[in-house]
Amino acid sequence: MAGGSFPDFVEQVSLIDHHVHGAFHADGDEARFQNSLNEGNTEPLAKPEDTYNTQIGLAIRRWCSGILDLPRHASPADYWSRRSELSELEVCRRMTRAAGVSDWLIDTGLDAADYLGKAGMAGVSGGRTHEIVRLELVAESLIQEIANPADYVDEFGQRLHELTRSAVGVKTVLAYRAGFDQDLSRPAPAAVVEAARRWQENPGAGTNAKLTDVTLIAHGIHTAVSMKLPLQFHVGFGDRDLDLHKTNPLYLLDFLRSPKVRDTPIMLLHCYPFEREAGYLAHAFENVYIDVGLAVNFTGSRSRDLVARSFELAPFTKILYSSDALGPAELHYLGARLWRNAITKVVGGWIDDDDCSEADARKIVQLVAHDNARRVYALP
Amino acid sequence: MAGGSFPDFVEQVSLIDHHVHGAFHADGDEARFQNSLNEGNTEPLAKPEDTYNTQIGLAIRRWCSGILDLPRHASPADYWSRRSELSELEVCRRMTRAAGVSDWLIDTGLDAADYLGKAGMAGVSGGRTHEIVRLELVAESLIQEIANPADYVDEFGQRLHELTRSAVGVKTVLAYRAGFDQDLSRPAPAAVVEAARRWQENPGAGTNAKLTDVTLIAHGIHTAVSMKLPLQFHVGFGDRDLDLHKTNPLYLLDFLRSPKVRDTPIMLLHCYPFEREAGYLAHAFENVYIDVGLAVNFTGSRSRDLVARSFELAPFTKILYSSDALGPAELHYLGARLWRNAITKVVGGWIDDDDCSEADARKIVQLVAHDNARRVYALP
Amino acid sequence: MAGGSFPDFVEQVSLIDHHVHGAFHADGDEARFQNSLNEGNTEPLAKPEDTYNTQIGLAIRRWCSGILDLPRHASPADYWSRRSELSELEVCRRMTRAAGVSDWLIDTGLDAADYLGKAGMAGVSGGRTHEIVRLELVAESLIQEIANPADYVDEFGQRLHELTRSAVGVKTVLAYRAGFDQDLSRPAPAAVVEAARRWQENPGAGTNAKLTDVTLIAHGIHTAVSMKLPLQFHVGFGDRDLDLHKTNPLYLLDFLRSPKVRDTPIMLLHCYPFEREAGYLAHAFENVYIDVGLAVNFTGSRSRDLVARSFELAPFTKILYSSDALGPAELHYLGARLWRNAITKVVGGWIDDDDCSEADARKIVQLVAHDNARRVYALP
């Protein structure tokens, strides 16, 4: 094969973004944009302009400027000025189309009015969209609607069955709600009903009943497991509401060892800084898959090392691509852009060192870019 | 020294593999070979052919093909075909001899009929072999043989003394049996006898009494410590029976701080993904040593970074080589091959950057390749 | 900008060493020097000469030899001989001046007779010095002086107020005394008084009452927080008295989430091997800052990767330089030397890969070298 062809191949390979959220559709102010460049905070930043002084800030100025017709490394002021000129929706159109993504698997758990939904994302990006159902949301709407907690088990099963008819997978945010250092064995129906009763009687602050009860979360997880749809776990990096050390995926070992779980694909999302631990699980369990989405965007030029670390123990058939983008569509583009950069250097480096043939390298890229996702989620 | 000489030096340096198991001696089917390329599973893989789509799969096709007279990157089908043609024993002979290993320190804890023993490994490889006694096996055979648990303490001491007469060290698999987050102080004899009585009365499932009692495991460890033989701990990466997060070697801090332990060499094996934590212990305790065996094989082209990480805090006098190979002798060869590749790049990189002189680099290589092991295990 | 200018820029940039101790002023024997090259041990090494067989040993021979007029990679014997010839104070003068440090922020918690104090360090180095007050020392002297534990709360507040009048920050060694897996919420005054009473009645072994009570340590921390001075936490790597796994900074999450803490700069020192976890906290909390001091010295040629890992999630406005040097002034110099080496390769690599412009790179270097420290500690 001709020199330079592997980078070209990586540049062209079509991606399936197996975990992503909707982009902004309406114009917003600069503070909204800046705050979107911080994943860890849970409230507006006191100095939002500091988000430009980060890896993701550099990466946007380097890689997204050209898409907005600006020179590389445009200043934050020039970037924001041009971005405002174009409108949010035009930025979104350009970024999502430049990403080279054929399919977006959208977690609609954050699908508030501010973000494009499944149809909107399809329209703007020109790609296919698929839905991932968030288990805790199902429970939270159910608890407000049923008259009798004794119906919880049956109703939850039926509702999840209905909601997933048009979905390709489900997701749990157990990481946020309770952490993984929990008993995640299947709870008995009576325990579930009792927990539902407690929850209904004491829904927590506000009108929204946020599910934090481990019995009910575990019930949701096992109900999903029995349906054998791919089940995504938020793992590691997220906002500071979660106890990061309690989201070490190794705490899932007992759950994964359960014989009933082995036929359900378990998708470990993000994983930072536990990507090596997650890779171990993908090695040790045939039904475990990983990605390093979200962290790729936020580590910018350092994402090359992160991607490399995700290629240690995990078989190449078990690694997927995701951006976990939400809000400004720079994130939808940048995930793909930085992934291509990283793969070109990491996997291309194996070719250069003769660790593998170029044909092998291309096969690996195709597996991670789309084959694994297509197979696991049974996409067309 | 002439250009290129350092890589040649690394190529030629003789290795002591201080933690290894026996190779297969009889022919087997491809599924056996494929399953041997997965360390984490505990049962036959549903799709064993997926083990080729891994770092170790690439590494075998890259580095072992030539030893079987095949071109680099031979296809899995060609590789298996040629391998079958040659016979397991001929593959074993070629691989073990190509490894450049002068001494194999064999953990006979897995020495079932399928694997070559000490004599067999010496014969096939042309190297010297030495025995490492596994403490838990000693206990497990003892408990089935003694009539009175009150004799356990004395009998265990005598038996261990006899068994280690011809051995160079002992090993504990505490990591598998209970994890490190335990009280590992020396138990009183009465507590040991009581635990032995309980175990004898309730040996667990099946006829094989698998030792999981921490009191008895700690007793075995402290009995070994008092003999001052090098004591190996399985740390980190292994099959999914172990709780990986409970094998963080930092949980051994209290044990290591015990004054009675300081004169016994403590050998931390594998350590992945805790190689930096293990390196810290090798820095903080003069009697602690580390290796990154097993993980080197399974991370393949990524083992360079792993080896580099093992060279952070650990003094060069405290790092050893091991393969932890078991079964197909590709693993016995590949450990050495990948270690040489990594050392050439990592330590060679220090020469290139003028971080050390070439003479220093050679001395470091000799320490890790064989000097440290020869000194610690008092090998001839 | 001309080729080669970025390395020159890094070479010249002035540093603020925001966490450092005093250098030796009086001559000592070689064992003292050798033992100073091991951070983990808590007693004289049995084989102190082994400290030369380490990353820090190589680094001293490589980088410090020239400052003593020796050729690079001088042998340990030649190095020690020349060093003795020059006297400790002359070595100290040369090393501290070669470091290119304008300001030293000195933790006087170890300020025994063996080490230069604030005035001595200023005199020998030609730089400015500033004081960091160690909270636990304040408590330990107070408990011996007050007649009535009921006065502890008021007296501690007054004393800390007085002591910090001329200081730029405070420090806690909670990591050593109790670990971070503790309830660090603000204790009620009555609980503090009760704990002070217990401590006074039972001060522990010897005449020095070493503070290990979490209530009193937390009281010290919250008293400091209310003064809004930068508050340094020892995190991670240190000697083996600490339980390294209990110093994972993620255990500080609850503390950091407390609204009262958000206006006080929290400085996470060292952080190894938790530099990525610390970086996450610097991303998720606007008032959290990190450095990788101490570990840079002890990982030597490998510090480049360590520095790189510290540039993942932490904003560039939240990363600081420190050496954490103590004793031989090689450590004061080497911290700066290895940091410049690492920055040239890591940040210079971003320029080479066009990940950022050279102007951006220079700005990042200035932030980490001195701007962040100057701003946070309000230095002149």
From TrEMBL, chains A, B, C:
Q: Which residues form the Amidohydrolase-related domain?
A: 212-378
The residues forming a coiled coil are none
Q: Name one Pfam family in it.
A: Amidohydro_2
Q: Which Gene3D superfamilies match?
A: Metal-dependent hydrolases
Which top-level group of life is the source organism from? Bacteria
Keywords (alphabetical) are:
Hydrolase
Q: Which InterPro entries match?
A: Amidohydro-rel, Metal_Hydrolase
- Residues crossing the lipid bilayer are none
Kindly list the GO molecular function terms attached to this UniProt entry.
hydrolase activity
Name the record gives this protein: Amidohydrolase
According to the entry, what is the taxonomic lineage of the organism? Bacteria, Bacillati, Actinomycetota, Actinomycetes, Micrococcales
